[in-house]
Amino acid sequence: MISASVFGFFGGLGAWEIAAIIIVLGMIFGASRIPEIGANLGKGIKNFRKSFSEAEADDEQQSKQLDEGQKPQEEQTNKE
After folding, report:
1. Which H, E and C letters describe the chain, residue by residue?
2. Is the dihedral of CA 5, 11, 16, 18 positive or negative?
3. Sequence-ordered list of residues with C-beta below 8 angstroms from that of 69, at least 6 positions apart, any chain
4. How far apart are CA 11 and CA 69, in angstroms?
5. If we measure between CA atoms, which residue out of 24, 50, 25, 19 comes closest to residue 38?
6. pTM of this prediction?
7. With bands split at pLDDT 50, 70 and 90, how would you rate the model's confidence at 1?
8. Residues 72, 66 contacting (CB under 8 angstroms)
9. What is the pLDDT of residues 12-56, one digit of tens each?
């Protein structure tokens, strides 16, 4: 049996609540559209994580440049 801790990102939802949500989604969207919705949701999460990690890398690069006494690249390109 699947424990509730596996679904920790759903908050306090148990297995029965998750099953009920899946059944309702199946009735609303139809069984054929659920995989498509899941794939699109997965792509969206992947893009969000990618852009978040890129933003973190940019922040780290700018802080490293500031520590070295250089102007960040954005300021250098905007003033030229």
Report:
1. CCCHHHHHHHCCCCHHHHHHHHHHHHHHHCCCCHHHHHHHHHHHHHHHHHHHHHHHHHHHHHHHHHHCCCCCHHHHHHHC
2. negative
3. none
4. 45
5. 25
6. 0.49
7. very low
8. yes
9. 778 888 889 888 888 888 878 888 888 998 999 999 999 988 888
